[in-house]
């Protein structure tokens, strides 16, 4: 029997407010509810979830995932556009990272077009709503 893949989903600032925050942009479903659906959909994959509004906590989680997880699905949210540190953390670890965004960041404000993560990511998925996470997980399978 093949070994179960271990994938870590990491969400950055304000994504704990999904379902309440700007539903016209982010939808009306909480991430916890959506994550339960992902766990059901990908029963053969060990999915773990972490969310923080703190840049340092996100960096530590990325570092700690190295050698433990087979992949990271990362939505660094606003830190995508500001955090050299998160980009450096991704460059420093061997675990592949897929950068995801719920909205199409390129159809939004100009500052959201810059990512300090993309250069170090295995791939980028933007603009498919919460389905962006499902597509990222499938990329590891």
Description:
The protein has 141 residues and is an alpha/beta fold. It has a single domain, classed as Rossmann fold (3-Layer(aba) Sandwich), CATH 3.40.50.9100. It contains five helices and five strands, in the order βααβαβαββα. It has helices at 23-26, 31-41, 55-65, 84-92, 131-140, and strands spanning 5-11, 45-51, 71-75, 97-101, 123-126. A five-stranded parallel β-sheet has the order 2-1-3-4-5, sandwiched between helices. α4 (84-92) links the parallel β3 and β4. α3 packs parallel to α4. The chain is globular, with a radius of gyration of 14 Å.
Topology:
Elements: E1 5-11, H1 23-26, H2 31-41, E2 45-51, H3 55-65, E3 71-75, H4 84-92, E4 97-101, E5 123-126, H5 131-140
Parallel strand pairs: 1-2, 1-3, 3-4, 4-5
Binding site for substrate: 75, 81, 88, 102-103, 112
Active site: 26, 101
Catalytic activity: 3-dehydroquinate = 3-dehydroshikimate + H2O
